[in-house]
Design brief:
By secondary structure, the protein is α/β, with parallel strands linked by helices. It is built from six helices and six strands.
Length: 171
């Protein structure tokens, strides 16, 4: 059976940081537009600065998807605060994607990931699978980053070798 991979990335660039080893042939969904990550500065709150920053992050992610050979790239473009303030809207869109995918593997952030927005996206996908309406059997893989005692980010990336070992153990 051919593996089809779907990656849910809460923010632009998460797909590269967390799932670079499985990008080739994957369908990538970027949930938020990354507007909360704009660097501090005097123009931080101007609409034009935010729009330029959002556009730049999306284009960088789109280029990453192309370079790594992703099958598709879908930016949902929700503002970051929608992951909290308009959760029903975001959840319904994620559920629609889950229902219509033919992916055999889905990659989501871990529920205990401390990065804002990551646990929300993970919960939306997990909640969908709790409904029992998924059409084909899928494996959920979790990815995460953790902070050490000095609050430095330590990346925990699922690599291809680790993935293959886990798949063989499951079968």
């Amino acid at each position: 059976m051919e593996l089809k991979k779907l990656i849910f990335a809460p923010h632009p660039d998460d797909e590269l940081l967390w799932c670079s080893s499985v990008l080739k042939g994957s369908d990538i969904v970027i949930v938020s537009n990354g507007d909360a990550g704009i660097p501090n500065g005097k123009e931080k709150n101007s609409a034009s600065a935010i729009n330029a920053y959002v556009h730049k992050r999306e284009e960088e992610s789109r280029e990453t998807a192309r370079i790594y050979g992703a099958n598709s790239f879908t930016p949902l473009g929700y503002p970051e605060n929608w992951l909290y303030a308009r959760m029903d809207t975001v959840r319904d869109r994620i559920w629609d994607i889950c229902y219509n995918t033919d992916a055999t593997e889905i990659y989501i952030p871990r529920l205990d990931d401390p990065t804002p927005g990551h646990p929300q996206v993970a919960e939306f996908v997990r909640a969908y699978y709790k409904t029992g309406t998924n059409r084909i059997a899928k494996k959920l893989w979790e990815y995460s980053g953790i902070q050490d005692e000095k609050e430095n980010m330590i990346f925990v990336i699922l690599n291809e070798e680790e993935r293959e070992k886990k798949l063989k153990a499951i079968e």
